[in-house]
Amino acid sequence: MKNKKGFTLIELLAVIVILAIIALIAVPIILNMINSARKSAARSAALGYVDAIEYNNGFADVEQEGYTKITGEKEVSEIDVKMKGKKPDSGNVTISNEGKVTHAEICINGYNVEYDGKDATVGDKSSGSNSSISNPVSFETDSWATINKAVKNNNTSVYNVGDEKTIEIDVNDDGVNETYHLVIVNNSTPDECSTEGFSQSACGFVLQFKELLNITNASDEKMNLTVTSVGGWPSCKMYTYLNETIYNKLPNDLKNYIKPTSVVSGHDSEETTNYTSIDKLYLLSSKEVGFNITYDTAKTETRKLDYYASGTGTDAKNKRIKYNYGTTTEKLWWLRSSNSNDIGAFCVVTPPGGPDACNAAATIGVAPAFRIGK
Question: Which phi and psi angles does 356 have, rounded to 5°?
Fold first, then answer.
């Protein structure tokens, strides 16, 4: 019989090396394909969930038996809709009075998904826990991740209304950051905050700039470039300026936790209904800073912020006084409330801390507010 020869050791090693190289190349590609497919499935599931909510509200509008309309800012656990497919595990959904989903941040199939009112974006996999984030100690020293976790867990007892925290942003675009103080102006969620159609702008954990923004372009201090309040707060130039220009200047570690807020604002003399918008940054209303003026038609749709409710007389007025950035010069500052007797005026806070209505094209100070808790 002829001798039969097998593979030599060197040949076996060569085959093993080749297979290892193929595995090193192929495995990441396969894993990436699997991850992409899972992300696509999460996106589809999220869009299906949004559709289910809006279909539910459509049936509720025509009084179809078994359907109840869902509006406002809701936790996933509060929403019960009929749907096929995977429902989210957790998250928040903002639904307009018309029954449309305007924003959602949900965890579904293990992925964090954000819906902006038009499309869904899939982020990283959810860790399922934020236990690695520190517990709250003080508002001034805690990270934004710690503050956000404390708000989400209703664990904000160490944070007091009036506490301040500094941030640095370059508002006037001169290449040098300015230092601002953010003040806790609200740290409660009364029962009225759950009322349908009630503004969320004075509910939960609300912060406001202590100083007026250091705006050097006079047009950016105007509510509108022309003398008009038609369309209310959502139609203002100031609305766009705050929610785009100023928002994009904020530190990323803060932006990550700013909560989109359903904001109700009063109307002008040509309208009969108030305006609702979903804001990242917003101006306060007359009621929220402690005024009770007849020409703000949305005063019953919001509440006085804890900060402005905590003093009386001179103390209350002093809390409303704001200064030009870096000075001790008092200045008027804008509110988002339209004057319902006019088509060209929004309310302002005057230097003595009182209310007034003003020309929408006037250059006046700006002290935006926002909520934490994503």
Answer: -160, 165
Residues listed for the chain: 374
How, if at all, do strands 369-372 and 72-75 pair? unpaired
Q: Is the Cα torsion angle 209, 211, 215, 220 positive or negative in sign?
A: positive
Residue 27 contacts residue 61 (beta carbons within 8 Å): no
Instruction: Say which residue the tokens 């007892």 belong to.
Output: 157
Extended beta strands in 219-301, E state: 258-259, 261-265, 275-279
Name the token pair of 336: 């988002």
Contacts of residue 112, Cβ cutoff 8 Å, sequence gap at least 6: 105, 106, 122, 123, 124, 125, 126
Contacts of 325-330 spanning 24+ positions with Cβ under 8 A: 325/171, 325/178, 325/180, 325/211, 325/212, 325/213, 325/214, 326/178, 326/211, 326/214
For every one of its 374 residues, what pLDDT tens digit does the chain have, with 9 covering 90 and above?
455 566 788 878 888 888 888 878 887 788 778 878 888 888 888 899 999 999 999 988 888 888 888 888 788 878 888 887 778 888 888 888 888 998 888 888 888 888 888 888 887 665 554 545 678 999 999 989 899 989 988 999 999 999 999 999 999 999 999 999 999 999 999 999 989 899 999 999 999 999 999 999 999 999 999 999 999 999 999 999 999 999 999 998 898 889 999 999 999 999 999 999 999 999 999 999 999 999 999 999 999 999 999 877 777 788 899 999 989 999 999 999 999 999 999 999 998 888 999 999 999 999 999 999 88
> Whole-angstrom Cα distance, residue 370 to residue 204?
10
List C-alpha distances in Å: 208 to 82, 183, 282, 289, 370: 40, 5, 9, 11, 7
Ramachandran area for residue 154 (φ above 0: left; ψ -120 to 50: alpha; else beta): left
Q: How far apart are CA 215 and CA 363, in angstroms?
A: 10
- CB-based burial of residue 359 (10 Å sphere; 0-12 exposed, 13-18 middle, 19+ buried)? middle
Question: CA-CA distances (angstroms) from residue 53 to 64, 263, 305?
Answer: 14, 21, 31
Residue 152: strand pairing partners? none
DSSP category for residue 343:
S
